[in-house]
Amino acid sequence: MYVLGINAYHGDAAAAIIKDGKLIAAVEEERFNRVKHCAGFPAESIRYCLKTAGIGIEEVEHIGISRDPSAHLHKKVLFAAGRAARQLAGGSGRRQTAGGRQADRVNDLGLDVVDEAEVGKLPAVPGNGEGNGQGLGIFRQVKDRLGNAAKVRDLKDAIATALGVSPKSLRAQFHNVEHHRAHLASSFFVSPFERAALLSIDGFGDFVSTMWAAGEENSIDVLGEVEYPHSTGIVYTATTQFLGFPYYGDEGKIMGLAPYGQPRFIEEFRSIIRTEAHGHFRLNLDYFRHHAEGVDMTWDQGSPVIGRIYSDSYADTFGPARQPGSAIGDRERDIAASLQLRLEEVGFHILNHLHEQTGLTDLGLSGGVAYNSVMNGKILLNTPFRRVFIQPAAGDSGTALGVCYEIYNGKLKRPRHEVMLGAYTGPEFTDQEIRAELVASDLTFETFDDDGVTKRAAQDIADGLVVGWFQGRMEFGPRALGNRSIVVDPRRADMKEILNERIKKREPFRPFAPSILEERTADYFEQEHPAPTMLMVYQVREERRAEIPAVTHVDGSGRLQTVSRELNPRYYQLISDFNELTGVPVVLNTSFNENEPIVCTPRHAIDCFLKTRMDVLYMGNLAVRRLRN
User: Fold this and answer.
1) Which letter does DSSP use for residue 474 in this model?
2) How far is CA 228 from CA 75, 172, 232, in A?
3) Residue 284: CB atoms within 10 Å
4) More confident residue, 473 or 292
């Protein structure tokens, strides 16, 4: 039985496919079309999944998408009615907006294609936007949105068009899976846990921002949720915008900036987001616009563009918003530190309640906020949980994976037998395919055997070269984990500046990550719980910080990847060979890209190599060296 899962019509479009419960492939659309966080329909991802499975779409028995327009419908309509009534009473209309196609809009009710941190907007109301016309306009828009929900409900035509087949040839049963249930499924059904507490913590999806549950065998029992308009993701995105980082996915920059500041605004953020009993929390809505005015979000098959979420109350409390590109001062650093601390406080509040509710000590974590690796790395220190599983695409792209398993395990009640410990589910290429691309590019290359390629690359790293490392199947999720990586020596304090100058062009406050042999983790870090998908930040042992300065952040931390021979034997061998040369079982690992999605194909890798100042590119058993002048 083949099951195809899709994340579509908003950021990080993706697809995944399983056969009889076995994961065959999972990939993001951005890796093919080279548009970061690509939204829209993942046609190329679907084609790749089918090709890898060796089947046509006609052979797929179940197809699902991680949106359910019918979920919480009565709450959405009541919210719309209440907002309309308030606007009628106030006599002031919503702001008019222009641009963007109707199909590429996101509204705050979840009646169409509601995304997480980009929620918010009904289309502009015709007329003068006042009085009775305003209220009637809103109700007309609700009706329109219910019609547009067909895009999500009926995937048959979209898939048939994308693949060039007749809709009649598709025999699959189609499913709408509620957004957060897809997240929960992605964190449990492929986890190593028989029973586990589960938390999906996000911006928004299907009118919910946060959902927690207990998983056992092939079922997930939802225990609680936080609904629109209250969201930790909204707070983080709004503050990210206020601090002058307006792009989709910029939240990670604030996480990197936070250690440079002091949390002197923590009381202000405790007022902005307040914890309540039983794991709940509530926003001070004076600071936000999404609940009252709506927020623009457009994409037109490209990267999502999000309108302003924060209100003028931010400026009243913190002073003027920072303009993008302007200098970052103590105020910005301290706001970032305060925001990060408050996110952790709220996260641990939810998790401690979840433990009390379930009594379980194994945790599956998912949702966009689960990319906050600083918070993740503190879970075992601040809650009773003893083991944590976070699948590598914890954000929205991973809901494609969750859809597959919610259908197979949850709906069809098939037994579980897949454990996803790695992230290597994307395209791979033979040495013959790589060789052909090198020849077509008129590049001179060397060829090594299996032992020789890791030994020579390790020597290059120890000699201070910047090494491109392109091996095996591409990773699923935002982290390069040793197959589409740039690898350098962590012992060199200047390596961070070298990478930024030659390739990455990133803000200087953003850290680089260490990859370490799994069995040596406790020798270098204060915690040793495995982190194979680079979604945990631990403190580097104080006596080791001077040894690996390039991967030690300003606060003494590192966002580590623990590498085992079982999950990635070639990358493990590379680090082992580096350890043999230097006595250090750690390398610096950053994603193989330059302000673009991570490279997918040999062509992408060659193009990135040629346009940057990388020293040597290893692809499979072949290597290309930059000619020295």
Assistant:
1) P
2) 9, 33, 11
3) 16
4) 473
Q: State what percent of residues in the chain have pLDDT above 90.
A: 81
From 157, 84, 190, 142, select the one nearest 409 (Cα to Cα): 190
How many angstroms separate the CA atoms of 351 and 383, rounded?
A: 7
Which helix (H) or strand (E) is 25 found in, with range? strand 22-28
Nearest C-alpha neighbor of 117 from the set 106, 125, 129: 106
CA distance 456 to 449: 10
Same fold, 2-69+152-182 and 431-625: no
Which class in CATH covers the domain with range 2-69+152-182?
alpha beta
CA–CA dist 569, 615 (Å, integer): 24
Residue 71: phi and psi, rounded to 5, are -65, 130
Prediction pTM value = 0.90
pLDDT digits (tens, 9 = 90+) for 197-247: 999 999 988 899 999 999 999 999 999 999 999 999 999 999 999 999 999
Q: What is the DSSP letter of 501?
A: I
pLDDT digits (tens, 9 = 90+) for 268-284: 999 999 999 999 999 99
Helix, strand, coil % over all residues of the chain, rounded to 5: 40, 20, 40
Question: Do 447 and 622 meet the contact criterion of CB atoms below 8 Å apart?
Answer: yes
- Residue at token pair 């993706």: 14
Domain 431-625: what homologous superfamily? Carbamoyltransferase, C-terminal domain (3.90.870.20)
The domain limits of the chain are 2-69+152-182, 191-288+308-389, 431-625
What angle in degrees, to the nearest 10, is found between the helix axes of 602-611 and 431-440? 40
432-453 residue pLDDT tens: 999 999 999 999 999 999 999 9
- The β-bridge partners of 305 are 298
Q: What is the DSSP string of 48-113?
A: HHHHHHT--GGG--EEEES--TTTTHHHHHHHHHHHHHHHHHHT-PPPP---S-GGG---TTSSS-
Angle between helices 232-242 and 330-358 (to 10 degrees): 170
- H/E segment holding residue 28: strand 22-28
The answer to whether the beta carbons of residues 579 and 491 sit under 8 Å apart is no
Identify the CATH class of 191-288+308-389: alpha beta
Contact (Cβ atoms closer than 8 angstroms) between residue 581 and residue 395: no
Distance in Å from the first CA to the final CA of the chain: 57
Question: Which residue carries 């951005």 as its tokens?
Answer: 30
Residues whose CB falls within 8 Å of the CB of residue 432, separated by 6 or more in sequence, listed in order: none
Give me the residue label for tokens 């206020």: 242
Q: If you average pLDDT over every residue of the chain, what do you get?
A: 90
